[in-house]
Every structure is written in C-alpha cells, then in structure tokens.
Amino acid sequence: MAENATAEAADKAADLQDRMIDALQSVIDPELGVDLVNLGLIYGMSLTDGVATVRMTLTTMGCPITQVLSNMIESALEKLPEIESVKIDLEWEPAWTPQRMSRYARMALGYHG
Predict the structure, then answer these.
(1) Is the peptide bond before 94 cis (omega within 30 degrees of 0)?
(2) Orientation angle between helical segments 2-24 and 66-77, nearest 10 degrees
(3) Domain coverage including residue 60
(4) What's 75's domain CATH number?
(5) Per residue in 26-84, pLDDT tens?
(6) DSSP labels for the chain?
(7) What is the CA 103 to chain-centroid distance, rounded?
(8) In this structure, is residue 64 part of a structural domain?
C-alpha cells in the first residue's frame, strides 16, 4: 500500500513539474523571441506549501528586462492551481552560455557556435 502511495505522489510531482515547464515555455524573452526553457535559463523548480521556487539565470548580469521576465514567470506559473506565489532565485553559477540553449533555440536564433 505504501508503495502505491509513493508511486502516486511521484506521478503527481512529475505531472506538476511537466506543467510548470509547459507554463515557463510560454514565457518568451522579449529581446530574443525564444522561451526561457529553450534558452537554457531555467536551472530548476520546486513547490513547497504553494510557493513555487524557480532557480534560473539570465543571459547577462544586469539584464535590463529582469523585472519584466520575473513578472511574466509569476503570471505563467500562478495560473496553475497548486501555485499560490512564485519566488525567483537568480543564480550566476554556472554562468549561462549559448551551449545551454536547446537545438530549437540555436536554430531560431541562427547560432552555429
């Protein structure tokens, strides 16, 4: 019985993680025109007591649209019923590089490096 409960909890957590990723794929960087997930800016996510924590980076320190992106992330994730609020943890290690981008993002941006 405990195994079933554990498996069910794992399935629910995986489903929520997938829905969080889907929500973040709707957040398009207004300067680059590609979503944050495909840009490789999202390092991880968690949910505790209704608070979603997003660990992420930016393409550059001092990015002028940091607050815009934060607002877009909050709006996207708060549409999920499990999420009451969003906390964003900006991290600079490891530093973002174009190699973190998905193949889709590289093609969309014409990056061949």
Answers:
(1) yes
(2) 140
(3) 2-107
(4) 3.30.300.130
(5) 999 999 999 999 999 999 999 999 999 999 999 988 888 999 999 999 999 999 999 99
(6) -HHHHHHHHHHHHHHHHHHHHHHHTT-B-TTT-SBTTTTT-EEEEEEETTEEEEEE--SSTT-TTHHHHHHHHHHHHTTSTT-SEEEEEE--SSPP-GGGS-HHHHHHHT---
(7) 17
(8) yes
Classify residue 97: in a domain, yes or no: yes
Which residues pair with residue 42 across a beta bridge?
Answer: 56
**Total domains, the chain:** 1
Pairing of strands 51-56, 85-90: parallel
Please give the Cα distance from 69 to 74 (Å, whole number).
Answer: 9
Place of tokens 């207004």: 30
